[in-house]
Automatic annotation (TrEMBL):
Protein name (database record): Transcriptional regulator, MerR family
Entry keyword set: DNA-binding
Domain HTH merR-type: from-to ranges: 4-71
Pfam family for this entry, one: MerR_1
């Protein structure tokens, strides 16, 4: 297993910018070692980056991700981290289901408006065809 990773290796592997990685560092999410001006990331940093990106894809905020990552290394440890993760998943799922319901209602409303517009267009077309005002 590789002992250290450079910023270039990680940005290429995860398809992120150096600015993003430096931002994660500024937020205390990763803590690379320094050798002169070079940042050296450990396998643990690499894993945290992976978790950060996965958390972002799932819609978690950086603050939530940081909270979950921080629990891993301290009490209540992994079990607490997993409990928190499950709570966050439940909350995120509820939020997405609510959005899904809102979208479904909006689509139904759009269908109704479209049907009304089509009906009115047909009425106008008939009037044009028959010359009725």
């Amino acid at each position: 297993m590789q002992r250290y990773f450079t910023i270039t290796q990680l940005t290429q592997e995860f398809d992120i910018t150096t600015r993003t990685l430096r931002f994660y560092e500024a937020q205390g999410l990763v803590t690379p070692q320094r050798r002169g001006r070079q940042r050296l990331y450990t396998p643990g940093d690499r894993t945290r980056i992976k978790l950060i990106l996965r958390g972002k894809r799932l819609g978690f905020s950086l603050a939530e991700i940081k909270e979950m990552i921080a629990m891993y290394g301290s009490a209540p440890g992994e079990a607490g981290q997993l409990r928190l993760l499950m709570q966050k998943i439940d909350a995120r799922r509820a939020e997405l289901l609510e959005k899904q319901r809102d979208i479904e209602l909006t689509l139904l409303e759009l269908d109704d408006v479209e049907a009304g517009a089509k009906k009115r267009m047909s009425e106008l077309q008939v009037r044009e065809d028959t010359g009725t005002p």
